[in-house]
Design a protein that fits this description.
Oligomer: single chain
Order of helices and strands: EHHHEEHEEH
Largest sheet: 3 strands, antiparallel
Strand content: 15-25%
Distance between the termini: 10 Å
Number of strands: 5
Strand order of the largest sheet: 1-5-4
Structural class: alpha+beta
């Protein structure tokens, strides 16, 4: 494991942000994420905010795991070069989508996947199995939470540098 991230979202506060006039919060989610959220709302008979809050926690947890992974790989190399700032982070191109069994997965656009691989020192066009992203999400009452890990297959000598 190269990176671990966790995030917790207050669902009522998140719902308030979604409902604010002129809010751009929905734009931080892809069309597919919003569609799956609408489908999930119908099945679960609950509100949009709880499902989007869990996806938001997943995006934040992914960002934290990625930053930890970059930091680990950069130890001893001086300044850390992050591919994005908070101002230009591509929130809608990092999707938290459920598969046909309802299991969530982190889906990256080709551009973001390329930047992830570059930032971790992996070949851009290499095997996607070499770098796997795992996510677990949950919500209970007024809290949504997500944990993300980034696992990469590196030469063991390189991994020891991060420990």
């Amino acid at each position: 494991m190269l990176g671990l991230g966790h995030d917790v979202v207050d669902v009522p506060a998140f719902a308030e942000q979604l409902g604010e006039p002129g809010s751009r919060m929905r734009n931080l989610f892809s069309t597919r994420e919003r569609w799956q959220t609408a489908q999930r709302m119908q099945v679960k008979r609950d509100g949009e905010a709880v499902h989007l809050a869990a996806r938001w926690a997943g995006k934040e947890a992914f960002l934290k795991a990625w930053c930890e992974a970059i930091s680990c790989r950069a130890k001893g190399d001086g300044d850390i070069a992050y591919p994005y700032t908070l101002d230009d982070f591509p929130w809608s191109r990092i999707e938290i989508l459920d598969d046909s069994h309802g299991v969530p997965h982190v889906m990256l656009s080709p551009e973001v996947r390329c930047k992830l691989r570059q930032s971790l020192g992996l070949p851009v066009d290499g095997d996607d199995q070499a770098c796997e992203i795992h996510i677990s999400m949950s919500h209970d009452g007024s809290v949504a939470s997500a944990v993300v890990t980034i696992d990469c297959d590196f030469d063991l000598r390189l991994l020891r540098e991060c420990v």
